[in-house]
Design a protein that fits this description.
The chain is α/β, with parallel strands linked by helices. The chain is built from 24 helices and 10 strands. The strands form 2 sheets. Strands 7-6-5-8-9-10 form a 6-stranded parallel beta sheet, with helices on both faces. Strands 3-2-1-4 form a 4-stranded parallel beta sheet, with helices on one face.
Length: 492
């Protein structure tokens, strides 16, 4: 076994220290050798992460690095969001090794992320021609077709992927397919794969308690704990009253941002503050305080047992309640600003969480894109965005929006303001779910590949009877959505 083999064997078992002891002398002896640079980059990747590895990988590419160098370099660049250069690097890798399926799949996945759907499809087809039994190639093609809402065409690729390798990733992706098609029984069954295989991705806590699997809750105490984002928690909270009715005692763990709202709305349950798992989450403290907990479940697993079909969504009434005193404060504030005029007061949310990367950007608009709304008579618009959007409000021409962000410090404040509005027009954010859960009319603006919870081509959201859906017909094209909203607003 030569030095390179010894080093890579050490890296495979996670021993970067031993690998580095081999790599450093090799690099010192011949600092321009691409193999030495590549090995040293791998050591840095294991030791410190992508940022430390990239300079050494770049050096390796400058010294006649082969396909493997360009491949790893491209993937590292993609990890830090340098997508254009990542794409170039992966193309170089593919040109140097056109028959390597793994390179083709990474290139396809990056094209798919960019919404270069035709390019992505070409890569997947090439990969399947090289290896018709590659499970990841089938899964990639399935996901690509799913994104383009070619659900029937995607189905056989999902099935073949699961036949070849019944992986957690494949089952998760297939859950999205089933749920989007309204097959809730299979969809929510596969959706639970996140609990055992992706708990960190879904921000799921680990409790050393038996997990609820749909059995009777009579005379039982159950802990329901938060997961995922605020919108998910609010949506899944629509099932909490049923759990409270069935169980002897219910403990609900939610972040502080939602705790006051949940304490008011679910008065028969015990609300505990439980932040994300990577923070000071008080798990042990909760278990110590409540010593006789029989069962636990992440909140996103409730619909597997309580909503197995679309028909099981009934009595979709308001289930969250705003603070009355705070609502009265906003009522006075809004009346002061209108001088008693009788007009429709509409809340606006045009921007989602931009820190979530491309997904957050695709779900969002600019305020300027909503300017046509001001052409509708007898409407005034109140921003439900937080303070970080005030500058955009102040500098956007052609639309008048009132910001009350100085009074919006948490979801309880936002709920109180929403109580005074006639309609909420929002992109897919937690505020849209909050408004719908409060029983207010909500018009939700969706990007072309909207989330599973909105079904395929549905005009109403089955989670809320008061939420209408307005969808992009083409990726990134919001003008038709805004035109549809204006037309409907004129009818009010």
């Amino acid at each position: 076994m030569n030095n390179y083999q010894q080093a890579y064997t050490a890296l495979d078992r996670g021993d970067w220290q031993s690998a580095l002891k081999i790599a450093q002398p090799l690099l010192q002896k011949n600092p321009n050798n691409p193999d030495n640079l590549f090995l040293y980059a791998h050591c840095q990747l294991k030791r410190s992460g992508v940022i430390s590895a990239i300079p050494w990988l770049r050096s390796a590419t400058r010294h006649s690095g082969g396909a493997r160098v360009w491949h790893v370099f491209g993937n590292c660049l993609a990890t830090i969001g340098d997508n254009d250069n990542a794409l170039d690097a992966l193309k170089r890798a593919h040109a140097l090794a056109p028959d390597r399926v793994d390179i083709l799949l990474d290139l396809a996945n990056l094209h798919r992320q960019f919404e270069h759907y035709k390019n992505a499809e070409q890569c997947y087809v090439k990969a399947l021609n090289i290896d018709p039994n590659d499970a990841n190639a089938h899964l990639g093609m399935a996901t690509l077709l799913h994104l383009q809402r070619e659900l029937d065409a995607a189905e056989p690729y999902y099935q073949r992927s699961l036949q070849l390798a019944d992986t957690a990733d494949a089952r998760w992706e297939y859950a999205m397919q089933c749920l989007l098609r309204g097959d809730l029984k299979n969809g929510f069954t596969h959706y639970d794969v996140r609990v055992d295989h992706f708990p960190a991705r879904a921000s799921i806590h680990s409790f050393k308690l038996p997990r609820w699997m749909g059995e009777s809750l009579t005379d039982k105490t159950i802990l329901v704990h938060a997961e995922q984002g605020f919108g998910d928690q609010i949506m899944f909270a629509s099932l909490l009253h049923e759990v409270i009715q069935q169980a002897k005692k219910v403990i609900i763990g939610v972040p502080q941002a939602l705790a006051p709202l949940f304490r008011r709305s679910f008065a028969k349950a015990r609300i505990e503050v439980l932040e994300k798992p990577d923070s000071n989450n008080r798990v042990d403290e909760i278990l110590t305080r409540h010593k006789k907990i029989n069962l636990q479940t992440p909140i996103g697993s409730l619909p597997r047992w309580l909503r197995p079909t679309l028909e099981s969504f009934k009595n979709r009434n308001a289930y969250l309640f705003a603070d009355k005193e705070r609502s009265a404060f906003f009522a006075r504030l809004l009346n002061q600003r209108t001088s008693g005029e009788k007009i429709h007061t509409i809340g606006l949310v045009w921007q989602g969480n931009l820190q979530s990367g491309l997904m957050g950007k695709r779900k969002s608009l600019t305020l300027q894109q909503l300017a046509p709304l001001t052409t509708v008579a007898n409407c005034r618009f109140i921003s439900l965005q937080l303070k970080d959007c005030d500058a955009e409000i102040n500098h956007t021409a052609g639309i008048s929006v009132t910001s009350l962000s100085e009074h919006l410090n948490n979801f309880d404040d936002t709920a109180a303001l929403i109580e005074n509005l006639d309609l909420i027009i929002s992109v897919d954010t937690g505020v849209a779910h909050l408004a719908a859960a409060l029983g207010k009319p909500v018009w939700t603006l969706l990007w072309h590949a909207a989330d599973w919870r909105y079904l395929h081509q549905a005009e109403q959201c089955y989670w809320y009877e008061n939420m209408r859906l307005f969808r992009q017909t083409q990726p990134g094209k919001w003008h038709t959505v805004v035109s549809d909203v204006c037309r409907e607003l004129q009818k009010q």
